[in-house]
Amino acid sequence: MAVVKARSSDIDLLARLLRAEAEGEGIQGMLLVGDVGINRIRANCADFIGIRTIPEMVYQPHAFEAVQHGYFYQRARDQERKLAKRVVNGERFWPAKFSLWYFKPPGNCPSTWYDQPFVGKYKNHCFYEPTGGTCENVYNTF
Q1: Cβ-count burial of 55 within 10 angstroms (0-12 exposed, 13-18 middle, 19+ buried)?
Q2: Are 51 and 36 in contact (CB under 8 A)?
């Protein structure tokens, strides 16, 4: 059962994002990017207040490097569509299970990023979870 509403066009959009942001990090890397995106929709806090749909999440200003810098041009493929459906249906994977942020630093992962603690790394991406009682919705079960 979907944890956020998603039409076929939303699945395609999310699939394009997964491919653009993490194709080089394989299936697991793309799933982690999807988890962060779905977490942002569910959280409704911090930088993500009012982000309620997949298009709002994908096109939020300054949210994704691939969208900002023109890597977001490839069509959705069946493999990425299947991955997008998995995260829309609530599959979560560490270190993105509760993460709202990730990025690819030029070196090691900093211990915090925008005052949020580092929780883990997958290949080249560092993941960060909210703290301090903020963003409690991201920790809710489905």
Answers
A1: middle
A2: no
